[in-house]
């Protein structure tokens, strides 16, 4: 009954089966094995073009390395003020880039508006005393569960192009956004102007598998060295690439994301029918952000449901959390069972009815 995150679950069966197959025998180390080469080719097929691919094991690691590839130590990054890279990674992007600065901007639903980004960047001093902006980073899905459309990505890319900045996509929940938009990976990335992508798989059924996918080959030049120097080149690289082979086979990754999104949609729909409950933002992927009456929140916790309180910094205009309310985040995954969703909704409805009767 855990809705705390999609990374609290283990790996899916196809991923584990691929790992067991790759585990047998001796193979070349440090990414020189045939499985890693197959996965690199598979990424090129998925994105419909030649790409540079650097496999890793953690989202923080690949995010830090991707930022460092695009931003010199004297440069800066623009992102939402609640973006994972600025709020949840213990300074890893600054560490890997040897001191680049991160600017966090406000935005409803943890999304940035192109005109606001442009105004901020244009308003920065241009003197040598200041750190020039070199990268814009967006989270797909955003920290409030919203999906950036292709048009929104393209509009942010245009701001970058006009100002000599690269565009990074933190795709920790890439597959969830992709199935929501019902488009191709190419359409959601380089065709919309993304230069470098951190491609997440751990949250969607892998054990520990992430990747940096580079579309602007100029940004790939230093990444092999940065990955090794930063301690993120696995000697038994085949055990990372094997996860991707199981993940991609028969579109398993898309099926996992569709299931997670469907479970979140069921949660959101059900909660909207519970008296006193409202959603802070629309449910667009596999996260739901209900504002719960305290009595409902307490009943859910007593019943053993696990989830997290959430920030109210990016609420829509006019929305607020009352004294007797709590904003929380519920995350569904490839492993979430419909019965668990129904138990959650029944508990919430019963608590709301009891509250109304008192």
Keywords:
358 residues, alpha/beta, Aspartate Aminotransferase, domain 2, Aspartate Aminotransferase, domain 1, seven-stranded mixed β-sheet, five-stranded antiparallel β-sheet, 15% strand, globular
Plain-language structure description:
- With 358 residues, the protein is α/β, with parallel strands linked by helices.
- It has two domains: 13-251, Aspartate Aminotransferase, domain 2 (3-Layer(aba) Sandwich), CATH 3.40.640; 253-357, Aspartate Aminotransferase, domain 1 (Alpha-Beta Complex).
- Helix content is 41%, strand content 15%.
- The protein has 14 helices and twelve strands.
- The protein has helices at residues 13-23, 34-47, 59-70, 84-87, 92-96, 114-123, 150-162, 174-181, 185-188, 223-229, 238-248, 252-271, 294-302, 338-357, and strands spanning 52-56, 76-80, 101-105, 133-139, 166-171, 196-200, 210-214, 278-279, 287-288, 290-293, 308-309, 325-331.
- The protein has a seven-stranded mixed beta sheet with strand order 1-7-6-5-4-2-3, with helices on both faces. Strands 8, 9, 10, 11 and 12 form a five-stranded antiparallel beta sheet that branches.
- β4, α7 and β5 (166-171) form a beta-alpha-beta unit.
- The protein starts with 12 loop residues before the first helix and ends with a helix.
- The mean pLDDT is 97.
């Amino acid at each position: 009954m855990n809705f705390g995150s999609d990374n609290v679950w283990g790996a899916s069966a196809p991923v584990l089966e691929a790992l067991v197959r790759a585990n047998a025998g001796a193979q070349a180390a440090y990414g020189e094995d045939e499985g890693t080469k197959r996965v690199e080719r598979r990424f090129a097929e998925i994105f419909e073009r030649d790409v540079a691919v650097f496999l890793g094991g953690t989202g923080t690691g690949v995010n830090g390395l991707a930022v460092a590839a695009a931003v010199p130590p004297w440069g800066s990054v623009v992102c939402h003020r609640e973006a994972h890279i600025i709020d949840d990674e213990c300074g890893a992007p600054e560490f890997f880039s040897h001191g680049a600065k991160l600017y966090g901007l406000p935005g409803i639903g943890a999304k940035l508006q192109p005109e606001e980004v442009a105004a901020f960047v244009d308003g920065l001093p241009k003197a040598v005393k200041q750190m020039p902006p070199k990268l814009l980073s967006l989270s797909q899905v955003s920290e409030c569960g919203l999906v950036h459309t292709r048009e929104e990505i393209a509009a942010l890319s245009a701001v970058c192009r006009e100002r000599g900045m690269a565009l990074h996509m933190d795709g920790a929940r890439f597959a969830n956004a992709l199935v929501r938009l019902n488009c191709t990976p190419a359409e959601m990335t380089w065709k919309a102007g993304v230069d470098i992508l951190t491609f997440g798989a751990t949250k969607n059924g892998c054990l520990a598998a992430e990747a940096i996918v580079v579309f602007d080959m100029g940004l790939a030049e230093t990444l092999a060295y940065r990955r090794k120097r930063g301690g993120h080149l696995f000697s038994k690289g085949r055990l990372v690439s094997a996860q991707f082979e199981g993940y991609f086979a028969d579109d398993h990754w898309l099926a996992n994301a569709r299931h997670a999104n469907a479970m979140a949609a069921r949660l959101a729909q059900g909660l909207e029918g519970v008296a006193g409950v409202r959603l802070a933002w629309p449910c667009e992927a596999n996260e739901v952000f209900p504002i719960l009456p305290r009595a409902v929140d307490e009943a859910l916790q007593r019943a053993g449901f696990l989830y997290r309180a959430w920030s109210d910094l990016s609420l829509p205009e006019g929305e607020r959390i009352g004294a007797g309310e709590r904003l929380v985040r519920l995350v569904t995954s490839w492993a979430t069972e419909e019965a668990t969703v129904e138990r959650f909704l029944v508990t919430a409805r019963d608590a709301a009815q009891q509250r109304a009767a008192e």
